Amino acid sequence: MRIRNLLFLLLALLAAYGMLIVAAELPPYGMPANPIHNQVAERYVNKALDDTGVLNMVTAIVLDYRAYDTMFETIVLFTATLAVVITLKSRKREGEQ
Q1: If pLDDT is split at 50, 70 and 90, which confidence band does 37 have?
Q2: For position 95, what pLDDT does the model report?
Q3: Rounded to a whole number, what is the largest CA-CA distance in the chain?
Q4: What pLDDT was estimated at residue 44?
Q5: Degrees, nearest 5: CA angle 60-82-96
Q6: N-term to C-term CA, the chain
Q7: pTM of the complete model
Q8: How many other C-beta atoms are found inside a 10 Å radius of the C-beta of residue 64?
Q9: How many helices (H) and strands (E) does the chain have?
Q10: Cα distances (Å, whole numbers) of residue 93 to 58, 74, 83, 90, 96
Q11: What ranges make up the beta strands (E) of the chain?
Q12: What are the backbone angles phi and psi of residue 73, rounded to the nearest 5°?
């Protein structure tokens, strides 16, 4: 039991060390994180109307630029909900018998 606790402590310390290393590599607050990603945001903001013809920029991004991503997120949420419902119904049946 004591070895298990020490192992958990070591794992927690390694995780904390990893988070500190990642946080140390972040840019200072207010500085742009990466110029490459800023070009994508500029394209979305400046050319959304020309590329999609949609006046609402959020709708243009979600439905035109990110349509497949949104569709697959919806499928994952539906599948997870269906799995929860099936699990709860099967447990209810077991309790009734």
Answers
A1: low
A2: 60
A3: 64
A4: 83
A5: 160
A6: 39
A7: 0.43
A8: 13
A9: 4, 0
A10: 45, 29, 16, 5, 5
A11: none
A12: -65, -40
